[in-house]
Design brief:
The protein is α/β, with parallel strands linked by helices. It has a single domain, classed as Maf protein, CATH 3.90.950.10. Helices cover about 40% and strands about 25% of the residues. Strands 1, 2, 3, 4, 5, 6 and 7 form a seven-stranded mixed β-sheet that branches. Strand 5 and strand 6 form a beta hairpin. Helix 4 crosses helix 5. The longest helix has 19 residues. The chain is globular and about 50 Å long. It starts with a strand and ends with a helix.
């Protein structure tokens, strides 16, 4: 069973999920231009899920070329509202606009992961989680935003399930680890089979 992995990301949450599942994790950020790739794929009418899968694979394969003997995990999550990608906010004002768009609506969070070795993808997984946001007042949205750190929001998005974001939702259908950024059940199942 594989227990040593390289995570092609700086994500503290993804690292924590892997470590909680018994993995020894080294982090090596891929530093790909995610925004440019998203814009290019959106111009070609790619779905949010297709974009998430492509980003996960690009991250993992880039680092796998550098460490061909190691198991590399790349991951990406995209927030999908009515087929449109909702990017991470760059300011509290932008975060308020995003939360207002999501307010009292159903959206999906697509989380994709790719496992590479020797510069090639050996497996990939995804989970699409359905989230229904409560109908929150302007004051409730502002109170929530005031509790969040802007730098964390820029990294992880407008809601952090692990940091009080649960209170925003009337309904969540999906694996919590996937919502936090990694479909760990599928990764575990696959890596358990490898020698």
């Amino acid at each position: 069973m594989i227990k040593n992995v390289i995570l092609a990301s700086q994500s503290g949450i993804r690292k924590k999920i892997l470590e909680e599942n018994g993995y020894q994790v080294k982090q090596e950020p891929s530093r790909i231009d995610e925004e440019e790739i998203k814009i290019s794929m959106e111009a070609k009418n790619a779905t949010c899920l297709q974009i998430a899968k492509s980003l996960a694979e690009l991250k993992a394969s880039k680092i796998s070329n550098k460490y061909p003997q190691d198991i590399i995990i790349g991951a990406d999550s995209l927030l999908d509202l009515e087929g449109k990608n909702i990017s991470k906010p760059k300011s509290k004002e932008e975060a308020k606009i995003i939360l207002s768009k999501l307010n009292n609506k159903t959206h999906y969070l697509h989380t994709a992961a790719c496992i590479c070795k020797g510069g090639s993808m050996i497996s990939h997984f995804h989970e699409s989680c359905k989230l229904v946001m409560k109908n929150l007042s302007d004051k409730e949205l502002n109170d929530y935003l005031n509790r969040l750190d802007l730098e964390i929001m820029k990294k992880y998005g407008v809601y952090q399930i692990e940091a009080g974001g649960l209170e925003l939702f009337a309904e969540i259908n999906g694996d919590m680890s996937s919502i936090m950024g990694l479909p760990i059940k599928q990764i575990n199942k696959y890596l358990e089979q490898l020698k």
